[in-house]
Amino acid sequence: MTQFAITFAGQGSQSVGMMAGLEAQPAVRQAFDEASAALGMDMWALQAIGPAELQSQTVNTQPLMLVAGIATWRAWQALGGAQPAVFAGHSLGEYTALVAAGALDFSDALRLVKLRAEAMQDAVPAGTGGIAAVLGLDAAEVMQVCVDAAQGEVLEAVNLNSPGQIVIAGHRAAVERGMALAKERGAKRAIMLPMSVPSHCALMKPAAERLQTALQSVNVRVPAVGVIQNAHVKAFSSADEIKAALVAQLYSPVRWIETIQAAAAIGVTTVVECVPGKVLTGLNKRIDGALNCLAITDIASLEAAISASQA
Length: 311
Known about the structure:
The protein is of the alpha/beta class. It is about 50% helix and about 15% strand. The longest helix has 21 residues, at about 60-80.
């Protein structure tokens, strides 16, 4: 049988009507109903109607992406999909992966990601942080740009997404200097991203402290299937290590290139993106062209991914 990985996307993959291709699956609506009850807001309306501006607010995006991923995972299970060799999630998607792997209860994860989003938003006053994508330079070149453009402010490479696509974050003025310097040094493009929070950099340490406190009262179990966590590119086997990795993740880079390479190193040949969308699938193909990278967007692609994982 094919060795496959299930991956879950994070912030930036949301879109209005993202579940339309899967809404006929009872498991999908059930997951959204559970989330709506847990959070006291209509999560189905948020995904179906939006508007996009409401979806893109961090405090809404994070719970929305979690429920979309779990709804898709439950549809996978309902149609007879097997357990993968390993799970992984990009940033916020790590929480989805931990729920799918049995390490976190869905209701606990929903409350955690809402608190996480609020803590991230509160950590940096509006307008003082920035986050940008740099295209066409490798990770080492972008890291050097960050060192040279920081000028005493925070500027770090925070998402190592794929060869030639690195995201930087920190103080807004430093990010703007970094964008300009990256272009001078040969970047094809440098684009400020429409996100209100400079994720995964040192500015998130106050948010990490709040998350650490919240995690103390959350029950985390050893997952049934390993979850490769972003900050360390490692699947942990104790609750304390999993919690510590979630805290570190807030102010550490998402090492996605290494995550996919680690999955391939244990024999994974197929990688499935288990949230409606194709953002990770595009990255995964660029990381390792030998991998069979599949995106679930509707019932047909879900069934095709299940078939591919069983081949």
